[in-house]
Design brief:
The complex is a heterodimer. Chain A is α/β, with parallel strands linked by helices. Chain A is 28% helix and 19% strand. Chain A has five domains: 48 residues; 168 residues, Rossmann fold; 178 residues, Dimethylsulfoxide Reductase, domain 2 (3-Layer(aba) Sandwich), CATH 3.40.228; 130 residues, Barwin-like endoglucanases (Beta Barrel), CATH 2.40.40; 298 residues, 2-Layer Sandwich (Alpha-Beta Plaits). Chain A is built from 34 helices and 41 strands. Chain A has an eight-stranded mixed beta sheet with strand order 7-6-19-18-17-8-9-16. In chain A, α6 links the parallel β8 and β9. By secondary structure, chain B is mostly helical. Helices cover 38% and strands 1% of the residues of chain B. In chain B, α4 crosses α5. The relative contact order of chain B is 0.11. The chains are: A alpha/beta, B mainly alpha. At the A-B interface, β2 and α30 of A face α1, α4, α5, β1 and α6 of B. β2 of chain A pairs antiparallel with β1 of chain B.
Chain lengths: 1042, 236
Amino acid sequence: MSAYSLEPGSGSPYWRSLQELADTDEYRHLMEHEFPGGIDAPDGMSRRRFLQIMSASIAMTSLTGCRWPVEKIVPYAANTPGIEPGTPIRFATTMEMGAAALPVVATSYDGRPIKIDGNPDHPLSAGATSVFAQASVLDLYDSGRSQKVLRRGGLFTNDTDWAAFAAWAQPRFAAGLAGTAILTGATTSPAVGMLLKQAAARGARIFMHEPVCRLNEMRGLKTAFGTAARTQLDLSAAEVIVDFDSNFLQDHPTAVRSAKAFAAGRRAESGRMNRLYSFENAFSITGGMADHRYPTAARDIGPAVWALAAELVLGCGLQLPAGCGVGAAQLGAWRGHAAGGPDIGPIARDLVAHRGTGLLLAGVRQDSDVHALVHILNAALDNTGRTLSYVPFDLPAFGLIDDLVDALNGGGVSTLVILGGNPVYDAPSDLGFGAAFSRAGERIHLGLHDDATGQASTWHLPANHYLENWDLASGWDGSLLAVQPLINPLYDSRGATELLSLLVDGAAPRTGFQVARDTFFQLGGGQGPAPAVDADPDFEKRWRAFLHDGSLAGSAQAGVALPLAGGALAAPPETAPLGRDNLELTFLQDQSVYDGRFADNAWLQEMPDFMTKLTWDNAAVVSPATAKELGIGHGDLVEMQYRGRSLDAAVYVLPGQARHSVTLTLGYGRDDAGTVGKGAGFNAYRLRTWDALHRGDGLKLRKTGRQYKLACTQDHFAIDKVGAAEIQKRVPGLAREGTFEQYTNEPHFVDHLGIHSPPLISLWKEWEYTGHKWGMAVDLNTCTGCNACVIGCQSENNIPVVGKDQVSRGREMAWIRLDRYFLGDPEDPKVAQQPVACVQCEMAPCEQVCPVAATTHTREGLNAMVYNRCVGTRYCSNNCPYKVRRFNWYNNFEDLTQTQRLVLNPDVTVRARGVMEKCTYCVQRIETARIKARVEDRSIRDGDITPACAQTCPTDAIVFGDLNDKESRVSKLRELSRSYDLLGYLNIKPRTFYLARLRNPNPEIAGHAAEGGHGAPAGHRAPAEHGTPAGHDGGHAEKAHG
Amino acid sequence: MAPDNHAHDPGQGPGTGPEHHDRFVFPKWTNWLREAVALAALGGVVYAVVLVAGVFAPKNSAIGYAPEQPVPYSHSLHAGELGIDCRYCHVTVERSARANVPPTATCMNCHKTIRTTSPKLALVRQSAETGQPIHWVRVHDLPDFVYFNHAGHVQSGVGCVSCHGRVDRMEVVEQVAPLTMAWCLGCHRNPEPNLRPREFVTAMEWAPEGDAAALGAKLRAERKIAPSTDCATCHR
């Protein structure tokens, strides 16, 4: 297919996928059919037969009584202060993942946690969460969790319990822990840390393994400063950010805090806007936000940093700090290096012009010396202490997994204890961990799932989910955080601290509560065990305040500027050029399953990746040019041959991927996962080697001739018509954007981007809103497309998961769809992200066509959906120009177990088969706020109501409020000249409006870009219809309304 | 089926002559159909009447539903004779969606000293001792897709009695209102007759002094009561 034959200057800058660009049959099918999946007849039954049976069953039901089953009210027996049945209560706790601890607030409804939100009182969260935190509550109720202690020996597996394990373990470990090894993840818990120290003192050897690790970063910091440190970013102070493959908006432990600060620096109304340059091989969220993005193979990014350093020092005269380990002579060879590209000069000059407000960042795929160089450059540019600072800490002297394999093979380990994690699945494949593992006589695995490692162990012990667990954690800023349970363990499970206590505390193992309390006491200067509950009022007060806040007040450490240590840096080595027979392979953490730990999380599996829009799979991502060169296409199954290993994987051709660089995300292809994740995707760990954890050369792709079905949502619910001409006309009006300069000079440029219409007159009588008038603003300038809103909405509104087959038929249920448009050259496109949910039209087309009045207008302007009236004609969806209505083709909750149902929000109806649903603006929260205001005898204030999407948004891109209140935040945003209505010319008056995205290109580069390459500003500025740059003629058009 | 070109001419009555040979005429033996159709129509009317009457019969609209409770708790004794305020037990009614049935501990506040051996209270004592809850039968049971909120109504000045009736006279609690959507909407459209000063919300005997309509209008204006009849108010 001539998929990517976009002619330069053909005037069709916007497109959504290569399929669309090529106008394939598949795309046409999706476009031309309202329900591309077709209509399913009931299995093995004709429509006539179905109606016969239905009429018979109606006749029969009318014979039975009219009263539904008797319901019981079961109050508590004892008084329960603070607990009111039916009233949700919230507790602060902490979600730990990798080395990142995120302070969260969990909502508990009648004793069961149902929703995770950010902790607004802690700066690491400031009320927002990552997508993983949103989805983590589903794992608690996962039916695939292991529920019993398992004792495996020979051919037999016996169900047993913790008491049996304790009886076995206590005599065994009573004398000491010699010959015992403990493998832990990158835990931040001081409680676990102390217990590990005690275990080491008793003779145990401690090892650490984390599939997604930051070792390069820590080693680089050691080279630069002689100590490991947690780098603190202050993006709100940064005006020029150069990101070398770090994806700091998502992959950094402080991503939530950074995203908020980054967004604060992009609010153009403040008169300034930061500028982001991004070098990366695979499209990340950060790359999507970049003003200048350079698709660069990961191995060429190190050389690009050196080229930048050379340009800064030799071109701009920057003085490197004395004794920094890099000499001017060393840099000479790198000046003008090809890896830096032609723009490295302007970038260097931009950085020098913004001394003290610049920021350079390097990611985990870069070598340690590249990290060190970046820190040196930050110091030389006076950025250190302003846009970034350091909290030094001692990296624990644990062995790594290769040391563990050596120890196992050396026969020195008789007992191996694994605290969480799944190394049999995710250890680098060349280490032979599986074989070495079996050399330990007793293998004890503590884990949420009886996964590959559990199955290879002699003891499998169920672990607590963090919502069942007592522990402590350390934030990236050093603050002490509380992990407290919201529910008793559902199964026979324990926390890591309890297992460790069994190993080190001898005959008197402590509970998780005691360990957490004792550690808190000891960190506060106490000796020995903490006072008994209520014995010491002062301590009790501190402890309770700690649990209430979720963190210890004042425990965050201030970042400092560290002195350079002067470790010598080695320049990146010379490597054979990349080509069709020498491709680069990079391993990235997955946006859905992370390192594989969320493989059984159905919400995350069905969440479309922000860029590929893939669900239920990963894929080998290649650039269009590379695919053409290799003669492979989207969905082809290829054999990946890499360093003597091979793996069959499906190909995904993604615009913007660096040439000759292939990306495969981690965490898929798990044969050991539960019913949800089993068999989804391709196991990247089978190709991963210890010496190249993040990237390596020497990959070949060989066609197998087979095809693989990828469930990809990118062409589902497409708004516009087929045809480049239509797309060209419409998309600039859908996802509007301009430049900061344009906005400054011509604030109303946005109004010229849409389709021009004569004055709009309504055919119907228009509504009047005398009370509240709810509306929502979505700022495309700060929306990163991180998907947190999508999962937050799913969690709040009981949105079902439908599975890969149904998704590929276009029947996904998520109420928020993140539209992603590419713009420009398929090899180096820009992207536009646009979250679209029901926009709550005032003159709603859906309401006009419902034959049973199941979708009606409220006096505050919501398009209310009355599920119990809906008969499923789907006319409303047919008539919806935004394609935001979702139909329940099946009874999606029918097969859930009682445990799985516990996650459902009781404030929202669970929809049955045959019912239409869509975004409600979280009407349950509106009504709750209304009643709360009534109870408190006041009116609803701005900020009382926050829909789930807005609450979780790390960049505050979504703002909800009353448009009739001129002082509300949303009204102020409505007044901005870059606000616009989606499809405003249809005169349906949507209540959700968008704020146009602004890019802030370097003027020195923008000129170059117009000729080719990063051609955004010139390319999108002028829809061909206008012929001249939009916004040249001031203020002739008004907004469609408002 | 007759071909189109023999379409009936309105000027010609039916059966004007044998010239319409190809026209379809019902054979004689089908005449019984006429009677059958008439009978079916009549039967349909009867069926509809019975069905409507059945659906709206007090029995089926749940008025009078008074299930036996596991403990023969008498509201007429406690709330009526002894005059205990509703909120002594239903503590959350002013701030929560649910009024809530009290924990056993609330019963034992008094009954650890009063009638400590009554056989009627055996289950209560057992619950207090064992911590096992009492399974009360729900009387006022709305469909699961309806979200009713007690706090919003109580704070607006709707008395308990408006929906629950004279509970203080009930030996066994029974449903007195139909709790149908039409009944809910009746009050949402015209709330004034059911409004009272907030301090009298739980008063069973309260009646407005003087002009009831004027008081209702006054209370409504004072509290800015504007009950919604939007679907989304109760269905979400």
